[in-house]
# Entry
Amino acid sequence: MSEIIISVKNLTKHFKENNVIENVSVDFEKGKIHGIIGRNGSGKTVLFKCICGFMPYTSGQIKVNDKVIGKDTDVPRNVGIIIEEPGFLPHYSGFKNLTVLSSINKKITKNNICETMRMVGLDPKSKKHVGKYSLGMRQRLGIAQAIMENPDILILDEPMNGLDNDGVQDMRKLFLSLKDQGKTILLASHNKEDITTLCDYVYSMDKGNLTPIKSQ
# Structure
């Protein structure tokens, strides 16, 4: 029997008179990759921000691991997140940036960070400052930051941004391997190929409305 790890019920988000999310209800099953495809401005990023507790919603309910966001907890635990372009300290190396971030929760070692950087195709020994990284390298580092503490849930908004073809293929393999480990992944993209290649369940988002278009 499938287990629901994220449940969204009658979710609405208004910005003044603009309805960005319009009465969305959806359940996300544990251990699957769920894709949301839609153009910029369709509501994908706002939906993810609401699920992550980064943005209050107007009405409805979001539960992550049976905890109501905004009531039982402000931010869901054990979630790795990429929303918009990752922000890093430009005068530090990639390894130093991840070391600083890891000091917040103190859950992982420097060896864990090195291993994660290698998983996404970055050299943990490189002294190159992140400010001199290409867009693709920064995106790889953002993915490393999202997965380094071994979260149960990944919420990834346009994670392929800036990646070349080899990078896209590498990340697709990585996400599928994480799914095989039992991770739940929510993936938003405007690239249909990423969605159809990776996802067990697919939804289309347009003008704040979410419509299922593929299920197992």
Remarks:
- The chain has two domains: 1-78+153-216, 89-151.
- The radius of gyration is 17 Å.
